[in-house]
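Protein Record: Sequence and Backbone Structure Tokens
======================================================
Tokens: labelled as protein backbone structure tokens, with as many entries as the chain has residues.
Question of interest: how does this chain fold, as expressed in backbone structure tokens?

___
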Amino acid sequence: MAAKTPNASTQQHLDIEDIRDDLVILKNGNAVAILQTTAVNFDLLSEREQDAMIFAYAALLNSLTYPIQIVVRSKRMDISSYLKLLAGAQNQAVNESLANMIGLYTKFIHDLVSKNQVLDKRFYVVIPYANTSLSQALTLPSLVKKDKPVPDKWHTLEKAKVNLGPKIDHLTKQIARIGVKTRLLRTEELVEFFYDLYNPEVSREQKAALNTTEYTTPIVEPALQPTQAEGSESTGEAPQ
């Protein structure tokens, strides 16, 4: 009799415990908030504006008393919705000349994207909350004790809110001095962000379930498809 294969979920291999109240709660008892920022073309600025931006960025770094992470993500743009919009405008054109111009423009955009890889760059600032401070982590009991209990996620969430609130306000003001706008990613945006991060191909056609009660099922696309072992018999039953 063949041994029963245990059921496993992809969530067991992720560091994320939950996404709630605009925060990402990690399994180790920590949490993070993510800010999305705009971009500035530094080369187009005058020398005085460049110096002012450099000094403002240096002031931001000198004001930090906690670690942050700057993430630059390059993503291939999906213009299918834009092409559909152009097709609809072409069908509704009032005269044939305008319809032909829209058709030529659509062909130009399609050829441009097919021959060149058009990327969309987005910038994020990750602000972490650590359940254990550096001084606590370096104490002898913390180093000797191996199995440290992980705090309840609700306890982590409340402490993270109190800890990250002033940090978010501080970073928002400091980044604004550089001439860059920021906004905090909300819960639904965080779910979509990580779904898109783990499923880059699938997310182009299928969006994530933005209701947080629905993402307890596996949503990570496997890198390798499972293969059936030789000599094993298929029961024909549907997976549970």
